[in-house]
Amino acid sequence: MSAESEDVPLYAERPEWSDVVPVPQYQGVDALAPINYSAEYQDATDYFRGIIRMGETSPRVLKLTRDIINMNPAHYSAWQYRYKTLIAIGADLTEELRQMDDFALTNMKTYQVWHHRRLLLTALRSRDAAAGELAFTARVLAADAKNYHTWSYRQWLLAHFNDEERLWAGERAWVEDLLEKDVRNNSAWHHRFFVVWSSGVREGDEDREAVGRRELAFAKEKIALAPNNPSAWNYLRGVLEHTKTPLSALTTFVQLYTVSSPSIAPEVMDLDNPVPTEGAQLPCVNALEFQADIYEQEGGTQITKAVEIWKSLANEYDTMRKKYWEYRIKEGLQTTHT
Amino acid sequence: MAPARDLRPTPTDGYPTATSFLQQDIEDTLLAHLPQCLASPDPTATQNVPAVLQRNNHMQYLLRNLRQGFPQRYTGQDASQAWLMYWILQAFSCLGVGMDGETKRRAREKLLAMQNESGGFGGGPGQASHLLATYAAVSALAVVGEPGPGGGWDDIDRKKMYDFFMSVKQPDGSFLVCHHGEVDVRGLYCLLAVATLLNLLTQELLEGVPEFIASCQTYEGGFGNASFPDWAFSNGYDPTTPRPVLGEAHGGYTFCALASWLFLQPYIRIRYQSTAAGISAGVNHVPPTINVRTLLRWLTNMQGTGIELGGFKGRTNKLVDGCYSWWVGGCFSLVDGLLGGASTATREPSNETATHAGNPPASTEDSEWHDIDDAIFNREALQEYILFAGQHPAGGLRDKPPKHPDSYHTLYCLAGLSAAQHRVVPDHSRRDDLLRSWNADTARGTAVVTASAGEQERLDNLRQESFLDALCWLEDEGADKFVGGSANRVNATQPLFNLTVTHTELIMAHFYQQRLPSRLPKTTSKSS
Ligand SMILES: [Zn+2]
């Protein structure tokens, strides 16, 4: 460990902690699968168990728990006890939040880091703080664009404080920016769905049909940019399902992507059906699948066309999922025959 | 002649981004781990593939973990000690490694030291009770415990554990993982698995849980980690208000949500049957549903292509990782159980016979489903990923090369291998056998929560149906598939619990006080 640990005395050596009886970890004699703790960690956790036994909540507990989570950010009991202590002594929670910023940035993969912030924000009941947290999570996501906990925390912030002007308003533009940077960032696509569809109606989005058109146009434009991007196709499907729009509404668009090279006169610009980018590798699997789903949804004799596509997916374009396409064939045929 | 292997790189459409750069890197790495003869375009070269499960290496790795323990950098796992024990012990079960009595005794001692007086287990001795740790400890005890004094099982304080469970229950049907902790479907899965194993299920515990799970499914078909409760639950329950899912579809959460959904089937059948009969008027009458169609699509899409060696990823546009061999690969049996499970056939016998008039009862629809072959994912490819990329040359299994192995990935790669080698599915005749020998009195007698007189029958019913649904899963030995030959065989895994079928049976027989009928291997499905 660093020089720091040599300078700082153990809790066992500090007179101001002499009133606490340390409690060693009991795990039986000759324990299996032991972890070879450092002396510092063992010492701090011994005193932590001692503090729990006493039930003490005081400023020095904050120091102790901070020491422990510095050595082990996943020590949920230390986080839990720290939170209880903060509330019990009426600590400045905004100060706690700021103190934890750097810690969150270096331990962004740890659940507890984000949950702690959520507890603090709940207790603070401050929209200013919530707005600050949007900025903070944006910083984290700039460094780690798919961090699950950060995304889920951000979504919680938006829903919990639910402030149209200060929180929701900038959200769609912000996430669009992230998709601009990486159109394959599925977390950002999910976030867009969260903002536009799952969480009620945003201000200015009252005309749901217009919103539906806007979102389909957005997804199509992103598909045109990089057709083999399942995130965009999934979003497209999600919008159709959510708005109960039949898949066939997109037939013209999808057919541009089911052929190896679309025969389009370049001077004809159809804004509803953006053409694949020059480098597009076609036909793309998601488009073929979509086309087959259109046929299946149409039913009747169209099912033979669906089966044909499923066969081509099974045998040529998407052989890893052969079993799945064969299952779809069987299902599709069964449905039409009954 | 077998078609040449498809090793085309994932298309980037001439538009690379951060995601596609990472993807390309990993494809290069994985391709380098495919044996030369398999990468060759000549399909005749695929004979004698050197696909060997390095059993002994892995066993030695696990033994070192168990006996010598972990170096200081594992301090970050100090709150996961119950997990470390479970991962190691269940990995031994997969490999078919038995343990001597003294090792089992020491394991029990270590695990029981994590139990708290207030109920439940912590991540280590002296740590607060936590749903995940409780699952890990109880599952590990299923492996190393037995009934009677010193056997570990009777040292579990089930009444207090139940109280702990109720103390973390939330109005929206979710559970905090610990006091002041977060809500997520992993915790829910852990609670339901334990409550099923230990005979702790009650209507009260499960109220609202199906609705919560359904609210965690995303537009992609998989499940996220939780949903936002406050709008729908600000003033009683308003089912018309949104409960948005927090976090995108994810393999780990999807497994937990789906397995939870299966655990809840008996409750859902009883709960909504009763409301239909007008027993509890005034509550929502519509049983919650999940979209199995989009779920299945999402699950199959998580399997990487040939160049990714058929491993599984955990989210759309993320990289393959060995642990999803279980989290996603393990879901296919569960979907099977949901679509063709024993419970559906026995649930509504009148409907079944109405739609399939003239067919022999019960299992017809089920066997049709199984005839599709064996599974909807590529079982051989998943085994290849684990054998070629998942194994660390020095022992232990891993996320992907060139990463180091760890106990977590060792278990979930082995469990995934098991899910790809075997088919474990609900078996109707097994369910019938279990039902014939079911003793409601002894099961009630050993339960820790009693119902009021009016609720007694429903609680008995819930207990019985949960027991039957959990224990009717059997290995279909005719459907085994071993890449690299049967020397690579690992034990079959019970899809709901990630324990062996035998360990599941033993611990449940104990906590429900049932005598189990002996079982014969099931080898029927290939015959048709
Ligand atoms: Zn992993």
Automatic annotation (TrEMBL), chain A:
Claim: Metal-binding is one of the keywords in the record: no
Molecular-function GO term, any one: protein farnesyltransferase activity
Gene Ontology cellular-component annotations: CAAX-protein geranylgeranyltransferase complex; protein farnesyltransferase complex
Pfam families assigned to the protein according to its UniProt record, in alphabetical order: PPTA
EC number: 2.5.1.58, 2.5.1.59
Family that this chain belongs to: Belongs to the protein prenyltransferase subunit alpha family.
Entry protein name: Protein farnesyltransferase/geranylgeranyltransferase type-1 subunit alpha
Provenance organism: Daedalea quercina L-15889
Automatic annotation (TrEMBL), chain B:
InterPro entries (UniProt xref): PGGT1B-like (IPR045089), Prenyltrans (IPR001330), Terpenoid_cyclase/PrenylTrfase (IPR008930)
PANTHER family, sorted: GERANYLGERANYL TRANSFERASE TYPE BETA SUBUNIT, PROTEIN FARNESYLTRANSFERASE SUBUNIT BETA
Assigned GO CC terms: protein farnesyltransferase complex
Keywords: Metal-binding, Prenyltransferase, Repeat, Transferase, Zinc
A molecular function GO annotation: protein farnesyltransferase activity
Name listed for the protein in its UniProt record: Terpenoid cyclases/Protein prenyltransferase
Region (Disordered): 343-368
Keyword Transferase: yes
Species of the source: Daedalea quercina L-15889
Annotated Prenyltransferase alpha-alpha toroid domain residues: 53-486
Bias type Polar residues, positions: 343-364
